[in-house]
């Protein structure tokens, strides 16, 4: 089992920045691909970004490319998502997830955090 807890969400004005963190406990953190997904009210959960176990590979959804940057610190069992130039359409609950396959498909992730709310005001 892997337990995940997100933090760092909040209310920010358009153009602002936030750093989301996801702390993991349980099995060896570096064995897992870490993904970020978001879900806005009335919408399905969408892929945001993912990072490989070593941190050497990253993948981003098109809407966040150039604005979001993922990283991880395996010594701290934590992954991060730096979110810059935030837009009102980024408003959603953001979830981190751990899985064994690098990619954007939610069903490939086995463990999920409870989520953290990000609200971007215009």
Mean pLDDT: 97
Task: Please summarize the sheet with the most strands.
Answer: 7 strands, mixed
Specify the structural class: mainly beta
Give the N-to-C terminal Cα separation.
Answer: 40 Å
Succession of helices and strands:
EEEEEEEEEEE
Shape: globular
Strand content: over 45%
- Which residues form runs of ≥5 with pLDDT under 50? none
Give your account of this protein's structure.
There is one protein chain. This protein is mainly beta and 122 residues long. It is 0% helix and 53% strand. The protein has no helices and 11 strands. The strands form 2 sheets. Strands 2, 4, 5, 6, 9, 10 and 11 form a 7-stranded mixed beta sheet that branches. It has a 4-stranded antiparallel beta sheet with strand order 1-3-8-7, with no helix packed on it. The chain is globular and about 40 Å long. It starts with a strand and ends with a strand. The model has no long low-confidence stretch (mean pLDDT 97).
